[in-house]
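Minimal example, chain plus iron/sulfur cluster.
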Amino acid sequence: MALDIHLAGQTASADQAQRSCGSCTLCCRLPEIDEFAKPPDVACSHCTGSGCAIYDGRPQVCRDFLCRWMTNPAFPDTWRPQTSHILVYDQGQQVTVLVDPDYPEAWREEAAQAAIAQWAADAEKEGRYLILFCGDYVEKMGARR
Ligand code: SF4
Ligand code: SF4
């Protein structure tokens, strides 16, 4: 399934940032980015590992993207992507959860399972759904799993 961070339906926008990315670059590695043919789970060629080498001239798709941790102050700091290894973002009807395949167990831990089930339940109440990706593994989740 193609992932795309060209988020026409994304609910976030750059002026909604509530936190700072710091040296996190997870969204420069995990998603597929159609605009510059970046495959999933491969670092963008401009990614330095702690930032973007072309930050001032980065593409609009990168300027527009913010994960849920960045936009929602109520989203616990536990889910900081750099430390949780889990990137969550809202894309129209879809809540996308990308798990760093270098940490394939990250989403299987009890606390993560409970949180993901809650996000899925919350999405379902809004008529939305959640899809989790971890490398080649894909799962669509509803409120009950
Ligand atoms: S995953 Fe979130 S916190 Fe990390 S660089 Fe991307 S927007 Fe920033
Ligand atoms: S161009 Fe920069 S901000 Fe965009 S994905 Fe590549 S490293 Fe990240």
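Residues 1-12 have pLDDT under 50 and may be disordered. The chain has one domain: 14-141.
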